Predict the structure of Lipid metabolism-like protein.
Amino acid sequence: MNQLMTNIRVLDMSRVFSGPWVGQMFADFGADVIKVERPVQGDDTRHQGFRVCNADGEETAETSSFVAMNRGKRSITIDLSQADGQALVRKLAAQCDVLVENFKAGDLNRYGLGYTALREINPRLVYCSISGFGQTGPYSSRPGYDPIFQSMSGLMAMTGAPDGTPGAGPQKVGYAVSDLTAGFYALAATLAALHHRDTVSGEGQHIDIALLDAQIGAISHMAQNYFASGKQPPRLGTSSEITCPYQAFECSDGQVMVSVGNDSQFRKFASAIGHPELATDERFLTNPKRAAHRAVLIPLIAEALAEKPVAHWLHALEQQGIPCGPINDFAQAFADPQVVHRELRRTLEHPTIGALPFVANPVKFSGTPVRYQRPPPLLGEHTNEILTELLGMSLSEIGRLREARVV
């Protein structure tokens, strides 16, 4: 296991995507992550996505959504609606450094499990709340999922095909970008709060992360374009409003993505596609000029690239140092030599699935490499282990809790 954070214990009381994403990253970095789930039902993502098949092709109870977000954790089931369940959480929180939750704002206060209550038990606890709209404000009590925050943040308004073209209109990004963006902000904030606790104050604090805030924060460079110009960034499909050429082009057998980032690259690009005269055309001398005259420039480039296959252009452009790449599906992405070399597809042995493929953590540490030793847990798999190890409970005590359906 990664040795970076073996001294950190995380109580993961979250579900769905954003909170579990934080917990999984902590687990990848070596923390002991205890996932608290509802008895019987568990995390919502245990019922979302595709059923994962075992080596015999038979469906298991595990889903693709759950296993993508929960490796490295231990699972305990606790009924928070019961007083005994609330007491168990308080005892666990007393022994943890971090608590991550993504209930609706204020929901855990009803159970005596909000930050103020747990701070009295454990002043060193860093308590991270992730919600749709945050802990304050007129929308704080509203529920929400990723598409809502993509739409409200302005992301969808600038994503999709241009007006007047087939399929024009706002489009959603193809994955739960708001959830994972919020998760990244939450991880960074929690690590910063732990650092402050351990080097400055000796105390934890409450972190308030909203998916809407995080999504707006993540597109701040586009918002800055709006602040500077007063103009809404248009939908441009695969292209860029401020850099040109910076988009996908049709080749004779597929598409290639081209990203020409500066004037020197454009001169090399023009030569590589057999039209060096474009680099000396007054309209295309600088990036702002190319962006202003894209309606003239892009058809000229498109006509040239359409004549030959993707492989030809990848080779020709790479020889000139022009950023470019194919538009891969997942099969192509995971077969790419660079992706294979970076070992982004790994496997873990799972008790019911067998060899479970997963996407590795992309962070490469020189001294403490990420190691994957614990697969995504079965529901409640570690309940006895956690209650005996951390709370010193006997099997008979745990048995009584099971009879009362507390765990």
Summary: The chain has two domains: 9-218+344-403, 246-326.
